[in-house]
Design brief:
Layout: H1 2-17, H2 19-22, E1 29-34, E2 43-48, E3 51-57, H3 64-78, E4 85-91, E5 113-114, E6 121-125, E7 128-132, H4 147-154, E8 160-164, H5 172-177, E9 181-186, H6 189-201, E10 209-213, H7 216-225, E11 231-236, E12 241-242, E13 253-254, H8 255-267, E14 270-280, H9 283-286, H10 290-299, E15 302-305, E16 321-327
Parallel strand pairs: 3-4, 8-9, 8-11, 9-10, 11-14
Antiparallel strand pairs: 1-2, 2-3, 4-5, 6-7, 12-13, 14-16, 15-16
Helix pairs in contact: 1-3, 8-10
Bound molecules: S-adenosylmethionine.
C-alpha cells in the first residue's frame, strides 16, 4: 500500500530529526510530525507523555483506512520511547454530515491504536508539569509550539504579568515559577479551573496568581481605568476566531480585525519599558512579516526584542507567528 510506505518513511525521517528530544526526561511533550514541514501537509503528530495525538486535516486527503494505518505506524515506530496509544483528531472542513459537531472520536476514551489512557495526564516541558486531556475535544490543553517562548519569557524577570486568552494558563505557570505575579484572563471558567490545577501541579504560591473570567478587551478597558492595573509583560496569544456571548459581554473575536485594537489597548496598560508578546495562528498574519507590519502600523515604531528560534520539532513555516516588543 503506497500510502503506508510514504507515511512510514516520512515519519521515520521526522523522528530522526527529533532524536535529541526523544530521550529527554524533563520534556515529554513535543511535536513528532509537523505537516508540510515534515513533507506531508495536513498531518500532525504530538507526543504527550505515553500517548501520541494524530491530527488529520482535509488537505491530507486520507481515507479512514489510511488514518488507521498511520496510527498503527506511529505506535509501532514509537513504542521504544514509551508511547502506548495513538488518539486521532480529524479536522473536517465540512461537518454538515455530523450535524456541525466534532467527530465523536475526539471525545472518546478509546484510542485508534494501543491502550486506553486516563482522562488526565501530566506532561513536562523543561521539568514544568502541565495537565493534558487526550479526549477532551480538539485541544489537549497545551499548544506545543510555544515551549521555547514560555521558557524565554519566564527568564526575562517580569514582576507583574498579564496573560490574555490564558486558556489553561500555560504561559503563566513558568512565569509564576520564576517569581512573577500573574493575572490570567479568559472567558472560560472551565479553562481557568484547568489553569489553577496547572499551577497547583507545580506547587506554586496561589497568592501570586489571579484568574479573571472576562473578555480580554473588556479587561483591558477595566485596567485602563485602574492605575494599579499596570504590567511589565503582557502575553497576547489569542485564537483566530472566538464565539461571542452577549449575555456575558463577550464580543465575537476575529484576530485579523480585532488584534490591532487589542494590542493598542494593551500598550496603554504597560509600565514604562514593559513588553508585549504577541502570537497568532491567523493565516493572514502568520505569513512572513505580516504580524510585525501590523504592530508597526498600529503603534508606530517599537523596539523588537529577541525571542528564541522555533523549537526543532516545529517545522511547518507560515502557520504561526510570534513576536516580542517594547512600545516606544
Ligand atoms: C487558542 S486558545 C489561547 C491559547 C493560550 N494563549 C495558550 O497559551 O495556550 C483560545 C482561548 O481563548 C479564550 N477566548 C476566546 N475568546 C476570548 C475573549 N474574547 N476574551 C478572553 N478569552 C477568550 C478561549 O476561552 C480559549 O481558552
Amino acid at each position: 500500500m503506497r500510502h503506508a510506505t510514504t507515511f512510514a518513511d516520512a515519519f521515520a525521517r521526522a523522528r530522526a530529526h527529533r532524536s535529541s528530544l526523544l530521550s529527554s526526561t524533563t520534556t515529554t511533550a513535543y511535536r513528532l510530525f509537523d505537516g508540510a514541514g515534515d513533507d506531508l501537509p495536513g498531518v500532525y503528530v504530538d507526543r504527550l507523555g505515553p500517548a501520541a495525538v494524530l491530527g488529520v486535516y482535509d488537505d491530507a486527503r486520507w481515507s479512514e483506512e489510511a488514518v488507521s494505518a498511520a496510527a498503527a505506524t506511529v505506535l509501532e515506530a514509537t513504542r521504544d520511547i514509551g508511547i502506548e496509544s495513538v488518539y486521532v483528531k480529524r479536522f473536517l472542513k465540512d461537518r454538515s454530515r455530523l450535524g456541525g459537531k466534532p467527530p465523536a472520536e475526539s471525545t472518546s476514551h478509546t484510542p485508534r491504536a494501543g491502550i486506553r489512557q486516563p482522562e488526565a495526564l501530566t506532561v513536562y516541558e523543561y521539568g514544568v508539569g502541565f495537565e493534558v486531556r487526550l479526549f477532551d475535544g480538539f485541544s489537549t490543553g497545551l499548544f506545543l509550539e510555544h515551549r521555547e517562548h514560555r521558557r524565554a519569557l519566564a527568564e526575562r524577570g517580569a514582576t507583574r504579568a498579564l496573560n490574555l486568552f490564558a486558556y489553561t494558563c500555560a504561559f503563566s505557570v513558568p512565569l509564576a515559577a520564576a517569581g512573577a505575579h500573574v493575572t490570567n484572563v479568559d472567558v472560560s471558567a472551565r479553562y481557568l479551573e484547568w489553569g489553577k490545577r496547572n499551577h497547583a501541579l507545580n506547587g506554586l504560591d496561589e497568592s501570586r496568581v489571579r484568574y479573571s473570567r472576562m473578555d480580554a478587551t473588556a479587561y483591558l478597558a477595566y485596567a485602563a481605568r485602574h492605575a494599579h492595573e499596570r504590567f511589565d509583560l503582557i502575553v497576547i496569544d489569542p485564537p483566530t476566531f472566538g464565539a461571542g456571548n452577549s449575555r456575558r459581554g463577550v464580543k465575537p473575536w476575529k484576530a485579523t480585525a480585532d488584534l490591532p485594537k487589542l494590542i493598542a489597548a494593551a500598550a496603554a496598560v504597560l509600565r514604562p519599558g514593559g513588553q508585549i508578546f504577541a502570537s497568532t495562528n491567523a493565516r493572514e498574519l502568520a505569513v512572513d512579516g505580516e504580524l510585525t507590519s501590523m504592530i508597526e502600523a498600529t503603534l508606530g515604531r517599537v523596539r523588537w526584542e529577541s525571542l528564541p528560534p522555533w523549537p526543532k520539532d516545529v517545522r511547518e513555516r507560515g502557520r504561526v507567528a510570534a513576536t516580542l516588543f517594547t512600545p516606544r
